[in-house]
Design goal:
By secondary structure, the chain is an alpha/beta fold. Helix content is 39%, strand content 21%. The structure holds adenosine-5'-triphosphate and magnesium ion.
């Protein structure tokens, strides 16, 4: 079967009242973005309170449905066969052909649901339902009608053309990216942070990301791994600006000046401070981390409190109540797991203490951070000035230079 268009069904944005058009426009934009790398030409438009993807040339069905199934805000994707508006007799034949081709040899129960927008059509919806049912039964003798709980719902819509559809490919749900503003994801090379980014983006939030890099202690491959993860998340979100921050001198300075059992916590506080400065500059409304209570020493409630204390922007931790196994399940589902488990060193793992504090005291940490007073501000400034910005989308990445950085 060649489908000439796709009807996009959306659930939650249907209930957004006066702002509905904002959500629909965002969804149209995200769909166009997702289809860009696909072979073929497409027109995406809103008609009759619905979104249609019209296929204007040959295309790869798998590729297109795959791309659409990654767009947040989509509840379902219905492949639609389109015919000219024909007289009833020909309509019956076309409907029967459609069902025969889409469900060959099927023994399922079905129901026909007709919508007649063109009120001048010679039969009304009730008559059409009955007659179409008969025509389909004749063509597909193993199928049967069940009007209460049909296994297959055959939709027929009569407008300026006739639309047939019967299948719904599930979308990811959520809200279209962009309607909820933007937030800064602290993206490490691990399993958790890409999942955290995915979850917040699913609620309509656009992502920027920051990676704290520690060359030469971390390799070029470690950065490539983070870019790859950003690319995998960008499949769902659209382009992500990844800030690659050189954190080496700050880490070494902390290592040199502060008690080693507090390294992780102090380092994390500087990551949050820098992430917040970048976030404000980029117009982000919050920070996102992959933290989950108790996962490691720096993620006890006490440690999370001490880390978050440096931020004035809200910090979103969507995995806070997730077990590792649950995070891994999502990570596999969204396609980041295989990249996350590649072995390259993360900057945190290099300077970890053997026995990190699990119950840091804020006053002690603040006192020990005073040991950094002499140079830390200029180091933070330098880290931000030398921000290596990388624009990542699902197909690749490029470094941003010069004017474009602002
Ligand atoms: P992940 O799987 O996300 O790496 P993790 O279990 O390794 O998580 P931590 O290393 O304690 O946890 O980091 C907690 C969170 O801090 C991460 O989820 C991430 O949001 C952020 N983070 C840690 N290291 C970095 C880094 N090098 N660059 C950017 N963000 C980081
Ligand atoms: Mg990590």
């Amino acid at each position: 079967m060649t489908y000439q268009c796709f009807l996009i069904k959306y659930a939650e944005i249907g209930i957004k009242g006066k702002n509905r058009h904002v959500f629909e426009d965002a969804l149209v934009r995200q769909i166009k973005l997702a289809l860009k790398p696909c072979e073929g030409n497409f027109a995406v438009h809103k008609t009759y309170g619905r979104i249609f993807v019209e296929c204007l040339s040959a295309y790869d069905f798998e590729e297109v449905t795959q791309a659409l199934s990654h767009v947040f805000g989509i509840w379902g994707i219905c492949p639609v066969a389109v015919s000219d508006l024909v007289e009833p007799e020909e309509l019956m034949a076309k409907a029967a052909d459609f069902v025969k081709e889409v469900f060959p040899g099927s023994k399922s129960t079905f129901k026909v649901h007709t919508r007649r927008m063109d009120k001048s059509y010679p039969m009304d919806s009730q008559e059409l339902n009955a007659e179409l049912g008969h025509a389909i039964l004749e063509a597909c003798p193993d199928m049967s009608v069940d009007v209460h709980a049909p296994e297959i719902m055959i939709e027929v819509e009569l407008r300026e053309k006739i639309y047939f559809y019967a299948e719904t490919i599930p979308g990811p749900g959520g809200l279209p990216v962009g309607v909820g503003g933007k937030a800064m994801l602290l993206l490490s090379g691990g399993i958790d942070s890409p999942v955290a980014g995915y979850m917040i983006a699913k609620r309509g939030v656009r992502l920027d990301a920051v990676y704290f890099n520690a060359p030469p202690y971390t390799s070029e491959r470690a950065l490539q791994k983070v870019i790859d993860l950003a690319r995998e998340v960008a499949v769902y979100t659209g382009p992500i600006c990844l800030h690659n921050i050189n954190f080496t001198e700050i880490q070494l300075y902390i290592y040199q000046k502060c008690p080693h059992d507090e390294l992780t916590i102090i380092m994390r506080r500087y990551m949050m401070r820098i992430a917040e400065l970048l976030a404000r500059k980029a117009g982000c409304l919050g920070l996102i981390t992959g933290e989950s209570i108790g996962q490691v020493a720096s993620q006890t409630l006490t440690a999370l409190g001490v880390t978050g204390e440096v931020c004035t922007l809200p910090v979103f931790r969507p995995l806070i109540g997730f077990d590792k196994e649950e995070i891994i399940t999502v990570s596999k589902k969204i396609g980041t797991f295989e990249t996350s488990i590649l072995p390259y060193e993360d900057c945190c793992t290099i300077f970890v203490a053997k026995h990190p504090v699990t119950k840091p005291r804020l006053d002690t940490i603040v006192r020990h951070e005073k040991y950094l007073e002499e140079k830390i501000d200029e180091m933070v400034e330098r880290a931000i000035e030398t921000d290596d910005m990388i624009l990542v989308d699902s197909t690749g990445f490029r470094h941003i230079t010069g004017e474009e950085k602002n």
